């Protein structure tokens, strides 16, 4: 057996540190680097799979939540449609909307009529001025 510079005993040069078949420190580092790269690749793939699965689970959970909310809204709407008070309120709202649209239509027609009258008045004035100029 040989001793290294610190006085420790080892089997052969290159020292295995007393670890048997695994070889020296240099070889161990290379193996750990190689295994590290492979393990890192596997770990990345595993993480990607985990992330994808988690993403899918979250997506399905959101989808289920939206489905439940939509179902509740449909049930609520159906309940409202069967309620006589709600039906009466809906009819009143429709009637109010119809009356509002009718008022708006009449107002727009009035404004259009007024605009046309003003344009006609301007034309008459322009014709009168032109005829007065021609007479002079």
From TrEMBL:
Residues 1-136 are annotated as: Disordered. Residues 38-66 have a biased composition (Basic residues). Residues 22-37, 68-136 have a biased composition (Basic and acidic residues). It comes from the Eukaryota. This is Uncharacterized protein. The lineage of its organism: Eukaryota, Viridiplantae, Streptophyta, Embryophyta, Tracheophyta.
């Amino acid at each position: 057996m040989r001793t290294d510079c610190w006085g420790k005993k080892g089997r052969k040069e290159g020292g295995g540190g007393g670890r048997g078949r695994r070889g020296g420190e240099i070889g161990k580092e290379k193996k750990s680097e190689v295994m590290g790269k492979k393990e890192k690749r596997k770990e990345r793939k595993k993480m990607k799979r985990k992330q994808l699965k988690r993403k899918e689970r979250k997506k399905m959970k959101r989808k289920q939540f939206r489905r439940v909310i939509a179902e509740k809204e449909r049930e609520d709407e159906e309940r409202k449609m069967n309620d006589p008070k709600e039906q009466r309120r809906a009819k009143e709202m429709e009637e109010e909307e119809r009356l509002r649209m009718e008022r708006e239509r009449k107002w727009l027609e009035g404004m259009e009529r007024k605009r046309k009258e003003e344009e006609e008045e301007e034309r008459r004035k322009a014709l009168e001025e032109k005829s007065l100029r021609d007479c002079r």
